[in-house]
Write a structure and sequence with these properties.
six-stranded mixed sheet, 4 domains, Rossmann fold, alpha/beta, ten-stranded mixed sheet
């Protein structure tokens, strides 16, 4: 097997996340060269350029904590993990658009970033609260070796001891903030320009988290500090005051891009249109599909271009609110054949996809009538409701302090769309996945990505949960119950809809479609890596033993061109797979010249570098392929 350097020296184009350029440094070097000298950032020069006071005696305002630089370095550090498809735990693996990633969420977020950067519209997290409990163990490694890897080698012994103490002390604000900081930085990267993040938190860190989020998302992008009533009745055991409120911090990626958070969710008109889309298109069309029909609007004429599959303009469009086409700018994009488009337009049906859906067709007056959510969340579910939900799915409630699906459902519904991705990287009991499936009963196409660490279940303190896993042949880790919860919740939702649809006298057009209740599960495993012998300076490869299809999925995640929820089409078993015109190849040594040639003729070709060799066949095509590490 060859390594990265061999392929580079042989003239191949190599894709390696470790070699990604730092765009900010390149921008500063090109536009403000005086700011960087000898690879050091000159803060005084940068402040002068920004028009900020240079006098260091003037203290700035913001949150500072021990471990901040360490946490920032963790954000930038390349993950040493990759994903392995778990077919045993997955459900509806060939059709689902939902993902569950098992493993440390810091690694999972870095893996997601390649494809999903700027594509997640809604994030909800309920991170571990910072209490005196010993149950939460910070998974981030922290020792002198790690500090050196992160470029913090010049830490004095006293500095290191302070950080070590801060990270390991119970209820350490420094340790908790250092844990959250890199994960929220990655969350910001993943949010779309009109995206929003909801963060549940209690009194212990609410104030610090607010300052941390001001720093990460920008103070100008703070939306609200929601107050959620988590208990119906206060406890009579309270020492001073009875706590019944927790908080949900809300930040936008860009405050000016965020639409009103409405208690009504999407409009009734949009719901009707979604139902029409489901009825007539049979899910043949891409995400964001909408139908204009009858009273909702009549399309009589349009011009299509085969190359872009887009409508360049529309004529003779009538809208219910009386607006003309000049007032309502519409552009639609399709990913189906021209023949299929023509077939539907003959029947006066037009399928429209746009980032903001039909809200472009809603008058400003109608928009203003939508009620915003208030900052006090009453009757949005409580702790007792979440306990009951778990008991309805299991014999016991295996989690403490879970959130009710109604809370997350309402938060998600407040986002002005019904076709987007919801990310939860502290999945816990899987409530977010449950809530998304429940919401999609309205015909929407919301998808979820859940991340949950494989935290072992204590066989003594959590005996019921541990016994459940053993009895059901599941690994005794938290993620096992996460996955089992969304599996049971999805099956329950499907049965409820099928029962309603089976009622006598139910018209076909009134029947609801069962939402996507499946999910692909990926395990986090050690990635292959290059090792250099310090004595001989020889380079060797430590290769893991994951299956061919998992290698293909890791290439899809790394390259970021195709949606990782798609199922790659098999061209040559265990060797060549494709999505559209992108070909992904592993075990290339087993592929003949004709297979290579056919792939190169028909699209872009990416080759797994960990299983490739510099043989004659590959050398012949080196100008036409990219090697992926």
């Amino acid at each position: 097997m060859a390594n990265t350097f061999d392929f580079i020296n042989a003239g191949y184009a190599v894709i390696d996340p470790e070699n990604n350029e730092n765009k900010l440094i390149n921008f500063l070097k090109e536009n403000y060269p005086s700011v960087i000298s000898d690879n050091e950032l000159k803060l005084d020069e940068l402040k002068a350029i920004l028009g900020l006071p240079v006098d260091e005696k003037v203290n700035g305002y913001g949150l500072n904590f021990i471990g901040r630089n360490f946490a920032r370095a963790k954000y930038a550090q390349k993950t040493e993990k990759e994903l392995q498809l778990n077919t045993t735990l997955s459900k509806d693996i060939d059709t689902t658009q939902n993902l569950v990633l098992k493993g440390d969420n810091l690694d999972s977020l870095k893996i997601l970033k390649n494809h999903y950067s700027g594509k997640i519209k809604c994030i909800y997290i309920d991170p571990p609260y910072n209490t005196t409990s010993e149950e939460f163990v910070y998974p981030d490694k922290f020792d002198k070796e790690e500090a050196e890897v992160l470029g913090l080698a010049n830490l004095s012994n006293s500095d290191f001891e302070r950080m070590d103490f801060s990270f390991k002390s119970k209820k350490s604000h420094n340790g908790w903030l250092s844990f959250m900081y890199p994960r929220l930085l990655l969350a910001r990267d993943l949010l779309s320009k009109d995206g929003v993040i909801f963060i549940s938190i209690d009194d212990n860190e609410q104030a610090n988290l607010k300052l941390l989020c001001d720093d990460i998302f920008g103070e100008e992008n703070f939306v609200e500090n929601l107050k959620w009533k988590r208990k119906k009745q206060p406890s009579f055991l309270a020492k001073h005051t009875a706590k019944v409120i927790e908080y949900v911090l809300v930040y936008a990626k860009n405050y000016n891009e965020l639409e009103k958070l409405s208690i009504e969710g999407i409009s009734d008109a949009t719901k009707k249109v979604v139902n029409l889309a489901n009825q007539y298109s049979e899910r043949l069309f891409p995400k964001g599909v909408r139908v204009k029909l009858g009273d909702e609007g009549v399309i009589t004429k349009g011009l299509y271009t085969i190359k872009t599959m887009s409508i360049e303009y529309l004529e003779d469009v009538k809208f219910k609110n009386g607006k003309t086409i000049e007032e309502v700018k519409v552009k639609a994009q399709f990913s189906v054949s021209q023949e299929k488009i023509n077939e539907y337009t003959k029947n006066e049906l037009l399928f429209i996809t746009a980032n903001k859906g039909l809200r472009r067709d809603v008058s400003e007056e109608e928009k203003d009538k939508r009620k915003s959510i208030t900052d006090l969340l009453l009757d949005w579910g409580d702790n007792q409701d979440s306990d009951n939900e778990m008991k309805n799915l299991f014999e016991e409630n295996y989690f403490e302090y879970t959130k009710p699906s109604k809370l997350i459902s309402n938060l998600t519904k407040s986002v002005s769309d019904d076709d987007f991705i919801v990310l939860d990287f502290f999945a816990g009991s899987g409530t977010t996945g449950h809530a998304v499936m429940e919401l999609n009963k309205d015909g929407g196409n919301r998808r979820y990505i859940l991340c949950q660490i494989d935290e072992p279940i204590d066989p003594v303190k959590k005996k019921e949960a541990y016994d459940f896993c053993i009895t059901n042949n599941l690994p005794p880790v938290i993620s096992s119950i996460t996955i089992e919860r969304i599996k049971r919740a999805g099956e329950k939702i499907a049965k409820e809809i099928e029962a309603v649809n089976a009622k006598n006298g139910m018209f076909e057009e009134d029947k609801k479609q069962v939402p996507d209740v499946g999910f692909k599960v990926f395990d986090s495993v050690e990635a292959s890596k290059l090792k250099v012998d310090e004595t001989t300076k020889q380079i060797s490869i430590t290769e893991n033993e994951i299956d061919a299809l998992s290698r293909i999925y890791n290439m899809i995640f790394t390259i970021g061109l195709d949606e990782p929820t798609q199922v790659p089409e098999t061209v040559v078993e265990d060797c060549i797979y494709k999505i559209g015109t992108n070909y992904y190849i592993t075990n290339s040594v087993e592929i003949n010249s004709e297979d290579f040639s056919n792939a190169i003729k028909n699209g872009k070709v990416f080759i797994d570098g960990w299983t490739a060799s510099l043989n004659g066949t590959l050398q012949h095509y080196k100008e036409d392929v990219k090697i992926v590490f």
